[in-house]
Amino acid sequence: ELAVNYSTAAILFGVLSLHGVARGYVARARAAAERDGTSATIAYTTLLRTVYGQSVPEREWLARDIPDAIERFAALGDRPRVHITLANDAFFHLVIEDFTAADRTADALAGQLDLASAQIQTFALVQRLALDLVRGEPDLAALDRLEALVQRNRLAHGDALLGEGVSAAARLRRGEIGHAIALAERVSARLAQQLPTTLYTSFGIRGALDVLLAVDPHSARKAIARCRKALRQIAFHNPAVRPSAALAEAQIAAALEDPAAALARARRAAEQAARHGLRHSEGLARLEHARLLAPADPARREQLAAAERLLAAAGSTAALARLRRLT
């Protein structure tokens, strides 16, 4: 019980952005679980600690602790906790843009989809589509299944928002513009009711924002402002989301605000992504920077070349295709 309480405290202090205190409780939780010594306690406190660890993100100990928790839950026959830990692992690797590892975990979770809860099915399908969006064409069967799941089930606010936002981006990629806009508007309506704070909902908000910015940003100013406010709030509570939120700020400025401000924000987004080792996000920020420059500007060619290197290294096939249309 003490280990669980310490893990819960780590989450709460993380939400308050008191990360030094949160890390102290992470250490206490680990020590208390090891003193307890039972596999169930060690696994459950690890699962709770990963909620905080994802938000920072704490790469080193998450890479060690999550597989251990999955193995312990499997040995205990605790299938629901195997599922949620696998889902956490996939979201963690999506956040740090290790798409190969995210793919591996998403496949493991997808193999258990028919035995999982509606929430876990939503997470698994979202993760598969998020990976598809990095690489190119979203899988239609997964997309249809996700939308049906959100419509059929009374999902929690954040889970429904997540499913609709990622579906919106996937429909846009497939050229289904009207469908994409309708889904993005549903996300905006949900944000008007309640702003989420959880890390994973940022994927849904980013998906809806991508649609609103791509189709008709001037007529979607209110919806874009809601997405922006929500991303800022999530990034405040979850430092791991800050590079994505910085990129969104640059893209919003490019669509709706002063070009000089957009350039400055694109530079900041690239610098922030580089500090976190996020090649995909840095490549997208540099691509945005290049797009804002005149075709004859030598800096444009430099930014495009840097973006191409980064996106190729990240395996970001879809963004590379977009880049090559600018060259």
Main features:
single chain, 327 residues, mainly alpha, 81% helix
Structure description:
- By secondary structure, this protein is mainly α.
- It is built from 17 helices and no strands.
- 50% of the residues are buried.
- The model has no long low-confidence stretch (mean pLDDT 92).
- SSE order: HHHHHHHHHHHHHHHHH
Helix count equals 17
Question: Poorly predicted ranges (pLDDT <50, ≥5 residues)?
Answer: none
Radius of gyration: 20 Å
Indicate the topology.
Blueprint: H1 2-15, H2 19-36, H3 39-55, H4 59-76, H5 79-95, H6 99-110, H7 118-135, H8 140-152, H9 157-173, H10 177-193, H11 201-215, H12 221-237, H13 242-256, H14 259-275, H15 279-291, H16 298-314, H17 317-326
Concise synopsis of the structure shown:
With 327 residues, the chain is mostly helical. 81% of the residues lie in helices and 0% in strands. It is globular.
